[in-house]
UniProtKB/TrEMBL annotation:
One of its GO terms (cellular component) is cytosol. NCBIfam families: PRK00110.1, PRK12378.1, YebC/PmpR family DNA-binding transcriptional regulator. InterPro entries: Integrase-like_N (IPR017856), TACO1_YebC-like_2nd/3rd_dom (IPR048300), TACO1_YebC_N (IPR049083), Transcrip_reg_TACO1-like (IPR002876), Transcrip_reg_TACO1-like_dom3 (IPR026564), Transcrip_reg_TACO1_YeeN (IPR026562), YebC-like (IPR029072). GO terms for biological process: regulation of DNA-templated transcription. Gene3D superfamilies: 1.10.10.200, 3.30.70.980. Keywords: Cytoplasm, DNA-binding, Transcription, Transcription regulation. Residues 79-235 form the TACO1/YebC-like second and third domain. This is Probable transcriptional regulatory protein CKF48_04210. PANTHER family: TRANSLATIONAL ACTIVATOR OF CYTOCHROME C OXIDASE 1. The keyword Chloroplast does not apply. It comes from Cytobacillus kochii. HAMAP family: Transcrip_reg_TACO1, Transcrip_reg_TACO1_YeeN. Residues 3-74 form the TACO1/YebC-like N-terminal domain.
Length: 239
């Protein structure tokens, strides 16, 4: 799974280059998740997960607080969670998750982004069957053996655990996110380089230089859309 971790790091680094866009997307996600349950992370596990992920992207506290306060105030804004699937250059597969208050607008914009950048939309299920929903944690300051011991003591089974560069990466079932997080924090680990639920490809594809340039344009076009929260793909970006 090492290569998949490289993809996550590369994606995160690219997103970090445009903080204002990241913060806006997180503010919306926090607001929506807080409205779906209690606006308190201690009683709303979905909100707690979003806040943990926001922390790894250095989202300012004032933006988080404003989003939660907005959720507490109620309001009439309603958002739909949507997932689109499609294909890019060279057999690449792409999943797009969106939050929107206008389904027609979002569908049209996503379809246009695919069509103008060498891709095409697929039907529901045409791509997602090749991805696995996964909880991923990245941390520093511990060895893989130390982390494994922590998780074993908490009676937690994980899919994979490895050391890569200076990090330990934990891959777990998505419903184990909270258990893994609490076990690691209980062992004194407070900072994570990554803490999120993601979609990891079962296999990856390598693109030729020209195809990769077209693919990058497609991903950028999708991530630039205001309604798009997250984009997953199966392209090996580790080269």
């Amino acid at each position: 799974m090492g290569r998949k971790w490289n993809n996550i790091k590369d994606k995160k680094a690219a997103k970090d280059a445009n903080n204002s866009r990241i913060y806006t997307k997180f503010a919306l996600e926090i607001y929506v998740v807080a409205r779906q349950g209690e606006p308190d992370p201690e009683s709303n596990q979905a909100l707690k997960q979003v806040l943990e992920r926001a922390k790894t992207y250095n989202v300012p506290r004032n933006i988080i607080d404003r989003a939660i306060d907005k959720a507490k105030g109620g309001g009439e804004e309603k958002y739909d969670e949507l997932r689109y699937e499609g294909f890019g250059p060279g057999g690449s597969m792409i999943i797009v998750d969106a939050l929107t208050n206008n389904v027609n607008r979002t569908a049209s914009n996503v379809r246009a982004a695919f069509g103008k950048n060498g891709g095409n939309m697929g039907v529901s299920g045409s791509v997602s069957y090749m991805f696995d929903a996964t909880a991923v944690f990245g941390l520093e300051g511990k060895t893989a053996d130390e982390v494994l011991e922590i998780l074993m003591e908490a009676d937690i089974d994980v899919r994979d655990l490895l050391e890569e560069e200076e990090s330990v990466i934990v891959y777990a079932e998505p419903d184990q996110f909270h258990a893994v997080q609490e076990a690691l924090k209980g062992a004194g680990i407070e900072e994570f380089t990554v803490a999120e639920q993601t979609m990891l490809p079962q296999t990856e594809v390598n693109l030729e230089e020209e195809q990769l340039a077209q693919f990058d344009k497609l991903i950028d076009a999708l991530e630039d859309l205001d309604d798009v929260q997250r984009v997953y793909h199966n392209v090996d970006m580790s080269e």
